[in-house]
Amino acid sequence: MLFKKGQVTVFIVIAVLIIAGALIYLAVKNSVSRDILPSNIEPVYKSFLSCVENSALTGISILESQGGYIYLPEFEPGSKHMPFSSQLNFLGNPIPYWYYVSGNNIQKEQVVTKKEMESELGRFIDEKIDNCYYGDYYEQGFEISFGKPVSDVSIKDDRVDVSMDLDFRISKDEETFLVEQHKASVNSKLGTLYNSAKKVYDKEQKELFLENYSMDVLWNYAPVDGAEIQCSPVVFSADSVFDELQAGVEANTQALNNKERGDYFFVDIPVNEEVRFLNSRNWPNSFEVSPADGNLMISSPVGNQPGTGILGFCYVPYHYVYSMKYPVLVQVISGDEIFQFPVAVVIEGNNPRKSLDASSVERAGEELCSNKNTEINVNVKDKKGIPIDADISFQCLSNSCFIGETENGVLRQDFPQCANGYILAKADGFKDSKYLFSTISSGIANIIMDASYDKEIKLKLDNNDYNGDAIIYFISEDNATKTIIYPEQKIAELSEGQYEVQVYIFQNSSINLGSMTAEQCINVPKQGVLGIFGFQQKKCFDIEVPEQIVSQALAGGGKQEHYVLDSELTSSVIEINAESLPVPDTIEKLNANYLLFEAKGLEINFR
Questions:
Q1: Distances in Å between the alpha carbon of 588 and those of 516, 583, 584, 585, 597?
Q2: What is the Cα–Cα distance from 279 to 330, expressed in whole angstroms?
Q3: Domains of the chain, first to last
Q4: How far is it, in rounded angstroms, from Cα 274 to Cα 260?
Q5: pLDDT of the residue at 376
Q6: What pLDDT does residue 365 have?
Q7: pLDDT band of 532, cuts 50, 70, 90
Q8: How many DSSP H helices and E strands does the chain contain?
Q9: Per residue in 478-503, pLDDT tens?
Q10: Which of 34, 266, 423, 524 is most buried by a 10 A CB count?
């Protein structure tokens, strides 16, 4: 019995060893290194790795073309004042701005980090694994299955490494092989290009070199400060000026480079790659100028007003203040790879924006528009009581925000709280309305809008049709001025109300004013302690005036107060008759014409 029990024990041990050996064999067989795959299995696995590498290359291309992003951040629209959204559309490809100014005037950055790029690329590769193609191998009898991938990406200067955890199982003819760890590497300058792009961006944020070049464009392509020796107003077309500025910005931006050292357009950037700067007039932009009357920039002469004839000459000084906003796309290039990102260039009040820092971020507008907690009912109608669909905004001090649009003349909406703010109403065919209203508590605002009409102007001189040069002003009660440069312009947009109509008619002249020296005296603070307490002294200096020819001189016109009725605006033509003045041939007669002009009236008829 003891012998038999010993035999059973030996058999049990042998059986356990056999089973354990079989399990070890199967484990080794089913989990193998990629380096020892059988020759008939290896092509399947190489196809898988090739799919991983192609997915990585595709993701790298997207990162480079979209400023380091594969998955775009939330889109933020721009506004009329700030044309930038959070993305630049470049040939149908949305690229997040690395720096932009939001629609409510908040400076923002979207500079991606290398760690974020690695994370997005890993996610992208994981999502593409399901799309790998194994159709040919399925036809050969292979069975391929895999679990959920988890990729870890490392971006180097000259390559991108991918390490993936994934149970990748290949079976054929009752043999199964399992690979759990996978590594792939692709050649790419993504890391180097990103580092160089970051250097370009940091230089722009620190030195604002794009804004400084923009300032040069402004002073070379647009009238900013200056004076013209003449006695008639200087008139510029804002549209023409903006066209010149856009052309100048586009050409000068594209001329910037980091290779031609010593050239005006050379930008000293410590990178080895080529850097290009692109701009297009078709991209979102904003150009504004002040003072301006609609499309016209008008500067009036000095020296022809009553009481200034002692000057003995006329000149027209001008000073225009511009705001320019436009995007620049920066491209860093190495071989066939291009990493690109856009930035916003901002000029406000003839000055570059401030470098981005905590003190430069204006948050008042954001706070105003984000804290809407007072319900206001807005009713908008015309003078006949007919409802008007209008755009409603609210202005508090220097900040404003869009509220909504009336429907059938009514808007019920929450407003931000403000004492003595303004509700602004705009609608096609009506004069803009500005309604003083406090939103400290709920209330009702009833706004009446005046209809506006485009009226043709027909000018007469001494009761005869006149088609020569003239300037016509319609100055309303709120000091808003509409200016007509006649005869190039003959349409005025008017609404009911009180106007002062002024007509200046200019004709050719040849008044020759010789050169002269005029003494100019001003009061300046006294030197020393007395100057601190406000004591002044007179300081005089000579002004050299060169010889000039007055080619355009005031030869007719006048001014007239007139209340324009709504019924009159239904007519088709406004006929204005002015009286002529003697064509002057001396500076004294020219000054006398301006004195006569003050006493001249106008005949105004609506026909």
A1: 16, 12, 8, 8, 14
A2: 9
A3: 29-73+110-186 (no CATH), 191-353 (no CATH), 364-449 (2.60.40.2190), 454-606 (no CATH)
A4: 11
A5: 95
A6: 43
A7: very low
A8: 10, 35
A9: 767 788 889 888 998 899 999 999 99
A10: 423
